[in-house]
Amino acid sequence: MDDNATPHVESTGNVGFDATILRNARKSLRYTQQEVADLLDIHRTYYVLVEKGYKIPSAKLRHLMETFVAKASQQSPRRPSIDLRGGVKEEPRVTKLFQPVPVISWATAGTGKDFEDLDAQLDEQVSSDCRDPNAFALILEGDSMEGRFFAGDRVIFLPNSEPRNGDAVLARLADGGVLFKWYHCTGPEGTRIRLTSENPNYSPIELNRADFRFIYPAYEVKRLMRR
Question: What is the pTM of this model?
Fold first, then answer.
């Protein structure tokens, strides 16, 4: 559970830092303690002690926590946000520090014409700090990229971004085939797409851009250390 009891630690008072506000901000965004701890780059146990008021965060950590609380309060579009330099600025869109990203299967990726069709998601999510509202994660299959990526990895893709040379991409062919490869744009005016594998046993593929339904660049990989 998210709020598991922790061994009693004598309170240090946490003077000047309201841990209740931090806890309420986390819950308002439905983030787990582990997710916030990862965001802050600290151990979950330490985060729990801060949230319960048993530890006083350092000045740097306190600043990050206060930034998180401020982000949590920005729930509506175009709501003014406080600039760290003291001014007030109007933001056209409020972006969370990280967001839950739906995970789909490899088979689902082969049925979608674009990201709007990729809605047969599994009952699973991963968190990411990517800003693409249509981001999704794919469960990899096969060994064509083995060495850098492995079957079972969850790779997050950005449907609203253009791939760049050297990106790992998810490419869906017009005939329905799905590929996870390294991307290289070649030919006059970038009309040819060359896809290569990490595994040397797989030959490169070169096709016209018109032969693809979509090509989405990868942003991040989530890997289980124990399967």
Answer: 0.56
pLDDT tens-digit map of 43-102: 878 888 888 888 888 888 888 888 888 877 765 433 333 333 344 444 444 344 677 888
Structure token digits, residue 17: 């830092």
Domain 99-222: top CATH class: mainly beta
Q: At what angle do helices 44-51 and 19-28 cross, to 10 degrees?
A: 120
DSSP one-letter code for 226: -
Per-residue pLDDT reduced to its tens digit, 194-216? 999 999 999 999 999 999 999 99
What homologous superfamily is domain 19-89 in, according to CATH?
lambda repressor-like DNA-binding domains (1.10.260.40)
Domain ranges in the chain are 19-89, 99-222
Half-sphere exposure for 222 (CA within 13 Å, toward CB) = 19
Closest CA to 130 of 167, 160, 107, 150: 160
Q: How far is CA 211 from CA 7, 81, 173, 188, 205, in A?
A: 59, 45, 6, 16, 12
Structure letter (DSSP) for residue 118: -
Beta sheet of 99-104, edge-to-edge order: 125-128, 99-104, 136-139, 154-157, 212-222, 168-173, 178-186, 192-196, 205-208
CB atoms within 10 A of CB 150: 15
Evaluate whether 58 touches 66 at the Cβ level (below 8 Å). no
